[in-house]
Structure formats: C-alpha cells, structure tokens
Design brief:
There is one protein chain. The chain is mainly alpha-helical. The protein has 18 helices and 2 strands. About 70% of the residues lie in helices and about 0% in strands. The longest helix has about 30 residues. The mean pLDDT is about 80. A two-stranded antiparallel ribbon has the order 1-2. The protein folds into 3 domains: about 100 residues, no CATH class; about 150 residues, no CATH class; about 160 residues, no CATH class.
Length: about 425
Amino acid sequence: MTKTNFYLKHRLIFNCALLTLLFLVNCFWGGMSFVVFPLLAVMVLLDNLENGFSYILFCMPYRLINFTTSNIIYYIAIIVYIIKFCFVFFVKEKGKIEKSVLILLGVLVVYCLLPIGNYNYNLFFKLCSIIFVIGAMLLIVKKPNVFRPLFSVRLISVSLLISCLMGLTYFISPYLQTTNLMVVSSNDGSVFRYFGLFRQPNVLAMMCEIIISCLAAAIISQKCNWLDVLLFVLVAAAGVTTFSKTYIIILAVVLFALFVGLMKVNWKKTLLFSLIIVLCGLVVYFIKPVIFTTFVNRFVGKIANCNNFEGVVNMITTGRLSLWKETANYLGNNPLVLIFGRGLGAPALSTLSAHNAYLSMIYQLGLVGSALFVLVIAVLIKQLLKQNKISAAIIIPVIVLALIFCVEDMIFYIL
C-alpha cells in the first residue's frame, strides 16, 4: 500500500472522525471534551511520526473548546509524541545530538532556574515552553521529512477554516452561547470581532498572520498550486473578521511582499490577479459599504484624534506603547535586572505583561539569558540551513514573526 493510499484510507478517516466528535462537543457537550482529546494521544501513539505530527497540528485550533481540560490533554498528546520521537530517533535509529547544542541548552535551563526570581507556576510553565520550542526546532533539524512544511501549512489552513465554521454553530449551541465564543465588542462598542473557537480575536488573528505568511512564501517560491492561493484568500478573509489592527498591518506587508515577489516571477499573471482582487473589493464595497466604513473609522478615523506620533502608535497598538515604555524605563533604572533579568517567575510590572516578546524576554532573562536563548536558536537555524536548501521567500514569515513579537509576549507572557 502506497503512502498516499494509506493517508486516504486511514488518516483522512481519523481526521473526519475527530471532526465529527469535536463538532458535537463544540455544539452541545463542551464540558466533556476529555472524551475526544484522549483519542488524539492514542492516534499519535499508534501511527507513524509523520501522521502523528499532522494529528497534533490538525487539532490545534480545537484545543480551547474547554480551556482547561482540552489544553491539558492536548499537551499530554504532544508529550506522548515527543517521547515516541525520541525513542525512534535515539533507540531505533541510533541518532545523536551535537554536544554544543546540549551544553548550550543545559546552561540556559540552569540559568533560568537560578534564584533571581520567584519559583512559581509561571516559571515552570514558561521554562517548559522554552524547552518545547527549542526541542521542536531540534526535531525539525534532525528529521525535517517528518514535518513536511508545505503539507503542514495546508493542513493547519484547512483545520483553522473548519474551526472558524464550527464557531458559527453558536446559533444552535447552548454550550457556545453560555461561554460566549461568538463575538466580542471593541473598546468603543461599535465593532463586533469574530474569533471562532478561540478565547479572543487576537489569537485567531495571530494564527492567520502566521499561516498567510507561510502560504505567501510557498506561492512566491512556486511550490504551490491554485489550492494554496484559495487557502490564502480564505485564511486572509478569516483574519479580517477579527478586526485586529496588527493583522491589517501584517496583511498589508504580506500582500506587498507577495506582489513584489510574483512580479519577478510572472508580471502579467500578477497584474491580472491583482486586478481581480481590486474588482472583488469593489463588489464587496457596493454590496456592503458598511464593512469599509468600519475599517476606515477603526484604523484611519481615530488618527485625527491623536495629538502626536506617540498617540498614533498607542492607537495602532491599542495602548501597548505605554506598556513598552513602562518596561523600558524599569530596565533603564535597574541595571542588574537589565543584565541578569528578574527571573521567569517574576510578576508583571503592571496589571498586564509588556506585550512585546523582546522586552519581556530581557525583563525576565536579562541580556545574559536572552543572549543564551538567541544563541541556541541561532545554532539550530545554522544546522538547518546546512542540511536543507531553503527558498529566499522564507524571509516573509520571518518578518511576520518579528512583527508579531513586537506586539505579543508569546512564550514570555506573564500569567
């Protein structure tokens, strides 16, 4: 039996079965999500590494159906997958990891556990997150064929779109109506922002940002087909429904990069495709002009009320500039914290985290710990580049991630 037939006969059936169960749980039985997610761990354990990874990726948008239970069991499935991966790599295949990577990772873990901050749940949760991110990169370096980048991007795109459709079951779901997962009002009460099965619109927006940047890279590198273009359009549209200011900025950056990249490949088709997009936009405007009016009021109209450049930045970042200045001032006034950090278990300076991964990392790890973390990542990236030829279009998701890190704490978020 070929791999393709195996996928069509087994994994697609398993995913559809999961979707059916998740749909029922999502609509009517949200508190019983623990009935569904153990199946994920079983599927990861029984299938091969490639399909096991796809199961985990496929279920990512659904893990927040029941925030506590689903998350815990989802992470258990990830742990099961990591243990299985290690068994296959180290025991069956006799694989090895470079001593330099292990030493750097060990030093980073010891540094994070030094008594410079509070020992609490926050410290151990973030330390596990850091180890997981580094471990995931290490697995990608050692067995890149397991992760099938383009296939994985397509899979998470489809999964995200299905989860967004599931969010629309709000109208028939007593569970969703109780948990209020359908809409949330903006600060001025005039905009309803969609966020599907996620806890807030910014999470859905961030997933859409990462996915469209990866799809754009695939399209530019010509490792795609019309399905990828369709997925790009649909995921981009899903992101628009969140009315996230950051998303609109990143979408503009991705579209510009996509236009420039495709112009070099085939300028005639690019201009034709751009014309189609503009015409579709005009059709939407004439059918539903309120959509454009809302965007103008939310992203342009408020600029007139800003007195200076700082006010414009604060408006665009929804008040994040004040948090950044607070953290930056604290670091400037506390040189020891700037150098060594306040610890992963440190409390937030105010009621919120800095909402900036760079500042949060320096605040918690200091320049020394941040340098260690970046060094580990740099070593892994260097190994990956040595083993694989990577298209220059990868710069698009890299830039998008760098922009997201400016407005979100990511793994350095303080609980």
